[in-house]
Amino acid sequence: MEALRPGGALVTLVADSGADLSAKAQEPPALHASDSLSPACRKIAGTQEFTGLIGGVPAPYSAVTVTVCVAGDSPGTVEDVHALITGADFGRAVETAPTTAEHPPNAR
Questions:
Q1: What's the CA dihedral at 15, 94, 28, 4 to 10 degrees?
Q2: pTM of this prediction?
Q3: Are 19 and 33 in contact (CB under 8 A)?
Q4: Beta-bridge partners for 63
Q5: Could you give the strand order of the β-sheet that contains 48-55, starting from the edge strand earlier in sequence?
Q6: What is the pLDDT of residue 95?
Q7: Which of 43, 52, 57, 69 is placed for a possible disulfide with 31 were both Cys, Cβ 3.0 to 4.6 Å?
Q8: If DSSP codes are grouped into helix, strand and coil, which group holds residue 80?
Q9: 104 pLDDT more than 70
Q10: DSSP state, 84?
Q11: How confident is the model at residue 77 (pLDDT cuts 50, 70, 90)?
């Protein structure tokens, strides 16, 4: 993999199975700064790393581990990723299509 561009980010999502981690998952989802960079983040020129554990995934998965590797001083990048993570539906609910005057429910 190439190095991240300044202000770039790599987001990794891993569905965890096995042990039930749902009790440790945070609601609402949160990302926490890591004390040190992982070797993988360093390899792609990352300068900051954040992690979080998000619950709500249907069995056999109990949580999703989120890792964010960010390169350089990137105002807004971490906030954008946090918005992406908190807005994602990891199997917590079924969304229905919004209804509008142009497309009422059951319209054919």
A1: 50
A2: 0.70
A3: no
A4: 16, 55
A5: 9-17, 61-70, 48-55, 32-33
A6: 47
A7: 52
A8: helix
A9: no
A10: H
A11: confident
Q: What is the DSSP letter of 49?
A: E
Q: Could you tell me if 23 and 62 are in contact, meaning their C-beta atoms sit under 8 angstroms apart?
A: no
Rounded to the nearest 10°, the torsion over CA 12, 55, 15, 74 is 0
What residue spans of the chain are helical by DSSP H?
Answer: 39-43, 77-87
Cα–Cα dist 55/94, whole Å: 15
**Among 51, 50, 32, 41, residue whose Cα is nearest residue 4:** 41
- Please count the residues of the chain: 108
Per-residue pLDDT tens digits for 8-53: 999 998 877 766 666 666 677 778 899 999 999 999 999 999 998 8
pLDDT of residue 67: 92
